[in-house]
Write a structure and sequence with these properties.
The chain is an alpha/beta fold. It is built from twelve helices and 17 strands. Strand 1 and strand 2 form a beta hairpin. Helix 6 runs parallel beside helix 7 and helix 10 crosses helix 12. The chain binds 6-aminopyrimidin-2(1H)-one. 6-aminopyrimidin-2(1H)-one (CYT) binds next to loops.
Length: about 400
């Protein structure tokens, strides 16, 4: 074998093996026991048996909303119970006085990368007020930081589609301008027109060949009705594997036999479910869905923004929160929580070269833990984060060469 760029010696993999990982041109070209690993390397690093996790994948984040990198903005509660419409109104007011997206998105990206995120899916607001401006700025942030993290972008109609005439056209333009997926928002609860809303986004997905990731806060049987509509449309258009329903609170609110039936439809259609196990809210039953064959994955969603003041970008903490709120205790359950911020999220994002495996991109996180279960419950720090084989974060900060 010719000389490799970097040889990572004594890497402990999640399957318990201790191996040498050889990286060339940003890819893992071999994983082998010490005696069989390449001898010639431009750089050799001894990982001393530390655990090597695949790069963490944030399945749902909002890079245009966070106040990380800005002054603290005190949370303003809704006036009479939670309302998406009022939340959006308060958010508009708070964002009017915020620093530019270039500054805030950069700070949020650095926060996430420092904890081990190497891939993310960001929703970006598209509405009549901001038009495509947020999209342009998040795309610029994506490009400016692409040596640290890969960002997928969803064109997200945060102020509705049917009740906001003109947004349908903007979403189509957003996809032509480079958004990777088209989003949606509570077809019933926000737009009061389930088919009108879904016709627009499924139309764009079908015409433009992109995936869908729809925010669905609508609860109870109304939410279930919408979820089943989304599953039917996905199947009819052959979009299996490219559609996500984010939040899907309804799945956490109706009786389990109703969830079983809906889970079957989701599995058959190839629709994934994202959850961040939000605060005091009901959320989907992870294991029930997984056992029915649904891909369930996780993401941080809101990080210190108008929606809620929490979040530090750490996906191991997110896995812990999902596990904690789901009542996970066994090793198998903890591994399920871990998979939600790694392989399941990678599958939902359609990443083909993911994992600590030969041929994959050399994106990984090195930390002091014996196994993934300990990684989830203890969230050990410090961590070394590698993107395409290069060190991008160390001891909680971004290494300067990656800025
Ligand atoms: N969880 C959410 C974040 C941002 N926008 C939403 O509609 N929902």
């Amino acid at each position: 074998m010719s000389t490799v760029d970097t040889l990572f010696r004594n890497a402990r993999l999640v399957d318990g093996r201790t191996v040498d990982v050889a990286v060339c041109d940003g890819r893992i070209i071999s994983i082998a026991s010490h005696s069989q690993s390449p001898v010639a390397a431009r750089e050799t690093l001894d990982l001393t048996g530390r655990l090597v996790l695949p790069g963490l994948v944030d399945g749902h984040i909002h890079l245009d909303k966070g106040f990380v990198g800005d002054d603290w903005k005190s949370h303003r509660p809704c006036t009479a119970g939670f309302s998406v419409r009022e939340r959006v109104k308060f958010e508009k007011e708070a964002l009017a006085g915020a620093r530019p997206i270039a500054v805030r998105a950069a700070a949020l990206i650095d926060l996430c990368v420092a904890h081990g995120t190497t891939q993310m899916r960001s929703h970006v607001d598209i509405d009549l007020q901001v038009g495509l401006r947020n999209l342009e700025q998040v795309m610029a942030a994506r490009d400016a930081h692409r040596n640290k993290v890969s960002v997928q972008i969803v064109a997200f109609p945060q102020s509705g589609i049917v009740t906001s005439p003109g947004v349908a056209g903007l979403l189509d333009e957003a996809v032509r301008a480079g958004a990777d997926l088209v989003g949606g928002l509570d077809p019933a609860g926000y737009d009061a027109d389930i088919d009108g809303h879904l016709d627009v986004i499924f139309g764009i997905a079908d015409r433009r060949g992109v995936g869908i990731d729809i925010h669905l806060h609508d609860g109870g049987l109304l939410g279930i009705f919408e979820i089943e509509n989304i599953a039917r449309r996905t199947k009819a258009l052959g979009l299996g594997g490219k559609v996500t329903i984010s939040h899907a609170y309804a799945l956490g609110e109706v009786p389990r036999d109703a969830v079983q039936r809906t889970a079957q439809l989701l599995a058959e259609a190839g629709v994934a479910i994202l959850t961040n196990a939000p605060g005091a809210h009901a959320f989907p039953p992870v294991l029930l869905l997984r056992d029915a064959g649904v891909n369930v994955f996780a993401g941080n969603d809101n990080i210190r923004d108008s929606w809620w003041p929490y979040g530090d970008g750490d996906l191991l903490e997110r896995a812990m929160i999902v596990g904690y709120r789901s009542g996970f205790s066994t090793d198998a359950d903890l591994a399920a929580a871990f998979n939600m911020v790694t392989t399941n999220a990678a599958q939902a994002l359609g990443l083909r070269d993911y994992g600590v495996a030969k041929g994959a991109a050399a994106d990984f996180v090195v930390l002091d833990a014996q196994h993934v279960q300990e990684a989830v419950v203890a969230r050990p720090r410090p961590r070394d984060v590698y993107k395409n084989g290069r060190l991008v974060a160390h001891g909680g900060t971004i290494v300067t060469a990656a800025r």
